[in-house]
Amino acid sequence: MGYVADSEYLLTIIVPLYNEEGNLPRLSGELSDYLSQASYSTKVLFVNDGSTDSSAMLLAQFCAGNPAFNYISLKKNSGLSTALKAGIDEVETKYTGYIDADLQTSPYDFDLLMEYAESYALVTGVRVGRKDGVVKRISSRMANVIRRSVTHDGVADTGCPLKIFRTDIVRSIPFFNGMHRFLPALIQLGGGEVKEVPVRHFERLAGKSNFHLWNRLIGPAVDLIAFSWMRKRMIRYEIADKG
């Protein structure tokens, strides 16, 4: 695919990252290869969440060499929810995609999700054959069970880092720290529909995960309280008549 003007892109893939210098060369290569074969005109927005390694320097190099690559860098490390919010605020395309920089999911699977993007506010992957360690899989499973018991969103794998949103809809939902765990439920609260699609999962080949017991179990439990409070106090109304 040759150069495409900004107004002609359909999808922007947001890639939040923090200290991923070991993954960035491979990540840049895989995303570049995907863009050349993607079924839809697609661009990439890297969101550097205050990395302290050489990630910022590498991003500048990769983006200078690819007109479909752009990046923003946050002044300080602020967490995944903030990085996603910052990226979404920059998107100008109809659809917004999200993938993690660790490449445990494949950008090629965005084509699977895009098949349903017109009909759903959010299309999210469900990781098949997960390659995570035992502790991570168990804690993730426990967190999903607890979350579903409160949100009733019916989503099997809300933590899958492969998603496509309608940009106008994802911009309308409330953002708070930890909200990335509740994206399907927040979309549903606004009246949007969610579709799950099986996607592949791979081992992390470089870098290290930023997740641990606190932000996989204890942190989400605290965030559930915030979500429940917000859901109970959401303003809802229907106009019966106008004159």
What would the CATH topology be? Spore Coat Polysaccharide Biosynthesis Protein SpsA, Chain A
H and E order: EHEHEHEHEHEHHEH
What is the rounded Rg?
18 Å
The major sheet is characterized as: 7 strands, mixed
Estimated helix fraction: 25-40%
| Strand percentage | 15-25%
Distance between the termini: 53 Å
Spans where pLDDT lies below 50 across 5 or more residues: none
Number of strands: 7
Supply the CATH superfamily name.
Spore Coat Polysaccharide Biosynthesis Protein SpsA, Chain A
The CATH C-level class name: Alpha Beta
What is the overall pLDDT average? 85
Number of helices: 8
CATH architecture: Alpha-Beta Complex
Question: Can you describe this structure?
Answer:
The structure is a single chain. By secondary structure, the chain is of the alpha/beta class. It has a single domain (7-232), classed as Spore Coat Polysaccharide Biosynthesis Protein SpsA, Chain A. It has 8 helices and 7 strands, in the order βαβαβαβαβαβααβα. It has helices spanning 24-37, 55-64, 80-90, 110-114, 134-151, 167-172, 183-189, 213-232; strands at residues 11-17, 42-48, 69-73, 95-99, 122-128, 162-166, 194-200. Helix 5 packs parallel to helix 8 (213-232). The mean pLDDT is 85.
Quick structural overview:
The protein has one domain (7-232): Spore Coat Polysaccharide Biosynthesis Protein SpsA, Chain A, CATH 3.90.550. 37% of the residues lie in helices and 18% in strands. It is built from 8 helices and 7 strands.
